[in-house]
Amino acid sequence: MTTIIPTNLRNEMQRSYLEYAMSVIVGRALPDARDGLKPVHRRILFAMHELGLGPDRPYRKCARVVGDVLGKYHPHGDSAVYDALVRLAQDFSTRYLLIDGHGNFGSVDNDPPAAMRYTECRLTPLTRDTLLADLEAETVDFSDNFDGSQQEPTVLPSRLPQLLLNGSAGIAVGMATNIPPHQLGELVDGVTALLANPNLGIPELMRYIPGPDFPTGGTILGQSGIREAYTTGRGSITMRGVAAIETIQVRGRPDREAIVITELPYQVCKAALIEKIAELVNDKRIDGISDIRDESDRDGLRAVIELKRDAYPRVVLNNLFKLTPLQTNFGCNMLALVNGEPRLLNLKEFLQTFIDFRAEVITRRTHYELRKARERDHILMGMLVALANLESVIALIRAADDTASARAELVNRFELSEAQAEAILQMQLRRLTGMEAGRIEAEHRELIAKIADLSDVLERRERIDQIIRDELLTAKQRLNDPRRTIIEKAEGEIDDADLIANQEMVVLVTEQGYIKRLPVDTFDRQRRATRGKSGARMREDDAVEHFITCCNHDTVLFFTNRGVVYALRGYQIPAGSRTAKGTPVVQLLPIPIEEKVTSIVPVQEFASDEFLVMLTRTGFIKKTALAAFANLRANGLIAIGLEEGDELRWVRRARAEDDILVGSRAGMAIRFRADEEQLRPLGRTARGVKSMELRKGDELVSMDILSCEQRERAEANGECGPWVLVVTADGFGKRVPFSEFRAQNRGGMGVIATKFRDQGDELAALRVVSCEDELMIVTARGVIIRQQSEEISQQSRAATGVRVQRLDEDDTIVGVAVVPESAEDGGSAFAAEEEEEAEA
Predict the structure, then answer these.
(1) What are phi and psi for residue 755, nearest 5 degrees?
(2) Which residues are part of the catalytic machinery?
(3) Which residues, listed in sequence order, are joined to residue 304 by a DSSP beta bridge?
(4) Which class is domain 496-839?
(5) Where are the alpha helices (DSSP H) in 717-813?
(6) To 10 degrees, what angle do helices 390-399 and 347-388 make?
(7) Is residue 113's pLDDT more than 80?
(8) How much is the pTM?
């Protein structure tokens, strides 16, 4: 009997359409923010995992994979499944391949792939190690397939932020997503930085993740579109292919200039681009092109656009950028499913969603491992009971009528569980030997320790965060590759530095790894030999270790004891008050726990004729071109090769015509030239050469550079020469003419720089200064005074100096810095103060 139910047509259409729309949004078109996959991609990878198609197994026909996906998990058309599989295996579509394809999988010319019966595939190591790892450890939920005959995962336990790693694109009902791919190492650095400091903002995260990294390379013009996309979830990124102007030689004809295209913007078809250029030439919209050739081969893309003799290559190239897809836009729409609902996410929300998901996966995996460990230990404890009562157990089993009665008797007599009794009954006779009994006891002890460790992981969130960090760094070490897309600053674009005044500042780094910056004007000018009233005091249990003055727009290079260099712009260092302890350096830079910042160097411009001179704790010195450190990666760069037990301690900027001054704790100093004869340039990974011969018990404490400009300025002003400021730990100082330190060959003993007034005093700093230089002297407790160098007495090398600062009993001098000339008016901050006083 048919039942007719009257229904309002509008309500029925609205309800049915919404159900259909949500089905498309959730079940087909949008990726999950946790593993970055759509259902079809997830089902393909899971089906291949079930088939055992690992990277170490032979290839299997794609038709077999597609058949399994259709029959078990994805009841749609075979072409849709095969197209999705092919895209995961195309190196020009996917930044990090999830499927290793064998055969014809299409080309950048938009050629179609071969039929699925001809192509073969298997999983890549990245998929196996990061997407499918721990799938059997109850880390994710499983659900029924379309007919209830199979179980499939609702999400894969990805160890990498896959959605940002490979990006995604999809069109749903009433909404769409378009997420660009990124570089693996940069994503790992961004996630680890967010783990270390959950309060990081998007500008700070963009230091680690500067922008997308497309599989076809190319360049990105400007960061404004990237910044907008990362901040709001939507933005337009301008992409441009890589084209160079070359002179080509053709036999029988004079040399011609040509535009050679070697990289294309993401998702631009090469054949369509060449066709578009030819069409524009035929329509006379672009002049100056005589021939177009596609010279691409297995070594890479190469499209040659030969120019006429009277053409202007740069004009033609600009027209190509303007009129063809050689320059195009990538419209970011960062939409993904979060808890089954579509959400527009910014960069930090993407990373935080991944971190929360990984914490959940690790928690579930730990619960699983803990349960398995306890179950196994429970069995071992039953075996140990049986071994302790071996004769009674054997007699009991021999006297039993059957297995069930033996099991029941074991449970009753020895207070065992059913599982323990069954394990004892299944023990082989060889397990009764003394060696096997020892192995059982050893395994029991190992399980006890493992259970305690797993319980600790579940009780402490910081342990989970550390596991996330370790897994990310392991994946980075194994799978990282160089960035392909270069990000260039667009003409007229305003960056963060343009919005910040280029003022003088002081940067302080403490022994415990805290850093902060303060304006130079924070510290009042004081008279010599006064106890500093205005200071940047740290915590009582911490002390200032490194101290420089620079400007907000300068690049500050941070060198660690392990010989690695990191970089920050001056304004990126968090500002603090004089009494604040600062921000941990590890929240700003990805410095491992075992490393420590030992030197900081401000750089205004990476000049080609400048070098960085580096000195290690054991006395090895080298110079390396400053330009080698112009483009530092977020995760740092090796600055010097070190022997085991050695550390990098001091780094200074110098030119070949400068002099180097090295001082030891016992008050000795050596001066030698930085030219080719004494110190030839070496590469970043070189160790260096011997700088100074030290007496027993002595060690190096300071290094500075005398520039040729300082010598020339001193001669022009009629001074008796540049000065060497010698300051001891107890607060005594003096100015010694640089000429008293005679030039020697590198590796000598040096000369006496100062005599000490009190026994136990030692050299704290040697700085090259001029009379007009303004100094800042800092103590271990963070007290800073400012004064002019001319206020410090001039004495000889053999003198003890005068008191430059009165110290508390438990305080010592740790460093001296020269205040740079003001970036705003070219003079010292004190010059303006003195002018105001004079006018008053």
Answers:
(1) -110, 150
(2) 118
(3) 260, 293
(4) mainly beta
(5) none
(6) 80
(7) yes
(8) 0.69
